Amino acid sequence: MRELSLDLTAQTRAANNKFYLFSSTLGHDRVAVTSSANLSNDSIGGTGGFNSMYTHVEDPADIGFGGSSLFERFHEYFGQLSAVAVDPSQADPDYYESNPPEISGTTKSYFFPRADGDTTENTLGVVDCDAQPSTKIRVGMWSITRKEVATALAEKAEVCDVDIVVNRMSQDVCTALTEDFPTNLRIRTFPRDEKGKDSDEGIHEKNMTIGGNYNGGNHRHVVFTGSGNFNKLSLRRNDENMVRILGDETVYNDFIRHFDDELISSATVEITSEDDCEDVVVGERKSDDRSVRRSGVRVHPEAATDRPQG
Question: Domains in the chain, start-ordered, CATH in brackets?
Answer without folding.
Answer: 2-283+294-306 (3.30.870.10)
